Amino acid sequence: MYDMDADNMMHTLTSFKDLPTLPVIALEINRLLASDTTSVNNLSRIIAKDQAIVSKLLKLVNSSFFGVRSKVSSVEEAVVRLGFNSVRNVVVSVSIFESLTLAHPEDLGFSLVEFWEHSIAVAVTSRYLSEKTGLQDPDDCFVAGLLHDIGLIVIARCFPESLVNILRKIKERNVSLYDIEKEVLPIRHNKIGEILAKKWQLPSSVCDALKYHHAPNRSAANPELLTLIHLGDVITRRFFITTINPETNSASPVLSSIGASAEKKLDLMYQNVNLWFPGVRETIREACEFFIRHE
Fold it and tell me: 104-291 maps to which CATH number?
């Protein structure tokens, strides 16, 4: 039996005053990029209003993790060299770690560090898959992978008792969060993540990647992007054990919602994962150092 019915849960989600919000600067960028007339100067001027974001943007762009060949020294240069979409993705990426916080996660038995380590691992793995197969934009994959589980933070904020119940059942039965969550809540973290992403005015392709990342769907705005995030998540759960995923994932990925050529490329990557994933681990470590422990 669910902890609550779907109507009550949705009412809480839509009326809750403490839902995570992106910084105003990120929302303004999303609004600007919805227009075909936005210029480099307009976008750069908006970003420059928030010097904390500027500092983080330039640190990330110039880090070994991001891998630009020569130093980027200004917002304008970042916009010109990376493009509008990539800059938006970087701004969202460096913003969410302050937006998606919990006051006392330890009281719930929830590890925020583990949550971010998993999210970063999925982001890095999805981006690697994109780079190696030539499917989709790697930066789109990174930000969608980083955000794929944000619905869990909303559950922790809005429904803490349900999260405690879920975590207790996971520990008792040694199964993954998704298996238990659908027994406890009528609206799961993937749908809640989609709701939050829409509120943040993120692209429909990212919203659908959050909604369907456990079960890719042909009706998604961008099935290839969605499938890359799904595969990145499956692979990450295969190699990393966490509180919410206490057993290594042995399930095969669902690749059938994309074209035959793309499916073949991703299936080959999956079959050879033991050969290439050890190298990706180091990139994951570097990204965790930057996003979680970097001051």
Answer: 1.10.3210.10
